[in-house]
């Protein structure tokens, strides 16, 4: 029997399981849903769950995507692959998101992939490691190439006999890149424009309840720099590290937003109401009245966690942006109208949103240790946020923060914050980044130890070796333990975990293999082991008995 989420959810109904926080829009798109409320699982099922033997993968520095027993992978797409007659797959793939074209067939749909950044050595032929001032040396042609390789890709993919492949030249296949015109979802122009040029620094993302892709602009200041203000509110330009502004003088204020992409035609818009900062991701929840709650974190040392609550159904424009005071458990409104302290520094709400980081600090938001990915636990409704690290504060290994909204209401204005799990040798992981819950409510997450610190005897990361993928089982004999199930190639991080709608495939990005390469003829990694021996960011599909068991598919099929 083909596993079908809709059937499964109706099974949940029959089993009269209590409150399950499955966002309904994810039911057919995967990457969270939950079968069991703890305590309602039959003894027989529990006994079977206990028999799942997860083999912990030892840390390794092997240049390969190493998987634990019961998992296999194949390549779906990699940098430079043709996706249509004129476009190629971009660089440094991060977030992935799969939407089936037709809910009755989980094996055919559209894959969105973020392209976060470029390694100039590979992309434009500019060896940035040889220069202390890269801006002075890039040509316009090199910058243009780099701009093409960021943004995102929409690619139709299909699974046949267990293998996912691209549907060549499908009309949906397209690139959104650093030069694509994108409208601002806001009434007021920003730096004189209502439509801006391009998206960049696309790190993680999300899926809207109306099934469009969300891609988030993270380290946007790398591309066109940043406008900074002194104590007297006088602006000046801080240069970017890529030096793109030398040839393309676009205002920094056009970047650092949450961007929505329509899968059908690639139409994009930037959502100003969600604020401007280094957005890692954006995780949405639809309330019964169709108002939307969107959680998003600012991945930088001592930056903040935000949530937007809409005041109209399915709007990402009308509503209030809040920032978290995790010490007092309060959501503080970034609202110019009602906050006199913001009126003193900013001339209107648009300015508050553009300079959200400053506004958050004025209100007393809690500095956090680099908030990255955010997921809603499908069983408890708690919000989990990875805090990757904060070396300045001697937090080398990070943790996962848990937010419990007051009475479980996602639009509540108060909450309780606590640590869900801390990184470090005791728990076997460091620097948590992207997360995904599978259909059984197991938590899968990746690590992001920076390439310059990994496998170095003089850094505290040595015991962890290469970046990895972990799972925390919710049931069975490994319940609550952190199990390493995959290890990344040299210098790479694993990003963008996303489950297919039937729960049988985990899409995963292998980002920046060979990142520390200085000589292109002698790369530090050769992943994915092409004939040209050039390392390439790659999206893989992970399948196998372990995923099927972890998702309890056989058990569920037997029960449905
Ligand atoms: Fe692009 Fe915060 O990782
Ligand atoms: Ca990340
Ligand atoms: Ca995620
Ligand atoms: Ca990261």
Task: Summarize the topology.
Elements: H1 5-14, H2 43-50, E1 66-67, E2 72-78, E3 93-102, E4 105-115, H3 120-123, H4 140-148, E5 151-160, E6 163-166, E7 174-176, E8 181-184, E9 195-197, E10 202-207, E11 213-217, H5 221-224, E12 226-229, E13 235-238, E14 258-261, E15 268-271, E16 283-286, E17 292-297, E18 301-303, E19 305-310, E20 319-325, E21 330-333, H6 340-345, H7 349-354, H8 356-363, E22 368-369, E23 371-376, E24 383-387, E25 399-405, E26 415-422, E27 432-437, E28 443-447, E29 468-472, E30 483-487, E31 493-499, E32 506-511, E33 538-543, H9 545-550, H10 553-559
Parallel strand pairs: 8-15
Antiparallel strand pairs: 1-30, 2-33, 3-4, 4-5, 5-6, 5-7, 8-9, 10-11, 11-14, 12-13, 14-15, 16-17, 17-19, 18-22, 19-20, 20-21, 23-24, 24-25, 25-26, 27-28, 28-29, 29-30, 31-32, 32-33
This protein binds MU-OXO-diiron and calcium ion (3 copies).
Task: Please describe what this structure looks like.
The structure is a single chain. By secondary structure, the protein is mostly beta strands. It has a domain at 1-19 and 31-76 and 428-497 and 509-560. The strands form 8 sheets. The protein has a 6-stranded mixed beta sheet, with no helix packed on it. The relative contact order is 0.15. Mean pLDDT is 91; it is low at 1-20 and 30-39. Bound molecules: MU-OXO-diiron and calcium ion (3 copies). One calcium ion (CA) binds next to strand 10 and strand 27.
